[in-house]
Amino acid sequence: MPTRKIIVLNGHPGATSLSKSLCQAYIGAAKAQGHVVRYHDLSEMSFDQDYGQSGYQNSKPLEPVLDAFLSDLEWAEHVVLATPLWWGAIPAKLKGLFDRALLPGRAFDTRKVSFMGLPDPMLKGKTARVLLTSDTPSIFLRLFYGNAVKKFISRQIMGFVGIKPTKFSTFSPATDAVEATVKTWLRKVEVLGAKAT
Fold first, then answer.
1. Which region holds residue 196: left if phi is over 0, alpha if psi is between -120 and 50, else beta?
2. In the predicted model, what is the mean pLDDT of residues 54-73?
3. 3-class secondary-structure state, position 114
């Protein structure tokens, strides 16, 4: 199997979390197979989450952590995002990271249009895996909510900038998961990491 360049983002804003453990399991298995991994931890990133009143013509300068994240995103062939499901969506700080970092000129090109008049995506040729932790069982996410969070991440974030396909692994219910269950989840993530998928 050819080695892949992988960026892993722990999208949980807390210093310790199941999301972080999943990231560590993925990274360890990927590196053991020779894949090259760059890791970013949202809890350690300090930046202004608010895009504010700036337009695309005069957006705020990126803080060094955001510029480093975007550079690694451009470098990577495969993107791994671990995030909890909070109130039907992703944590506010993670949304702020995407608001601030995915800008025209590096993530999409407003001077060119692609399908249906959308800006031309600039991060094409990459794939993604989302490790989603939730207390809502997967069947309820699908039946009652139409997989809204998955559509939001895969189509309106990843797909918009050209990263596709985005595959999901869901771990639920997560809050009170017993140790044996968590170990099973970590083993599943290790398999994904070893295959760089």
1. left
2. 89
3. coil
CB distance 108 to 161 below 8 Å: yes
pLDDT at 56 over 80: no
48: containing domain: 5-195
Residue found under tokens 């932790």: 133
In order, the DSSP letters of 115-127 are GGGPEEESSTTEE
Ramachandran quadrant class, 11 (left: phi over 0; alpha: psi -120 to 50; beta: rest)? alpha
* Residue for token pair 């690694």: 72
| Tokens at 192, concatenated | 């994904």
Whole-number Å distance between alpha carbons of 67 and 109: 18
Q: Among residues of the chain, what percentage have pLDDT more than 70?
A: 99
Residue 97 carries which side chain, given as an amino acid letter?
L
User: Residue 6 corresponds to which tokens in the numbers above?
Assistant: 């992988």
CATH number of the domain that 153 lies in?
3.40.50.360
Tally of structural domains, the chain: 1
pLDDT at 155 over 70: yes
Q: What is the DSSP letter of 57?
A: G
Question: What backbone torsions phi and psi does residue 88 show, to the nearest 5 degrees?
Answer: 80, 5
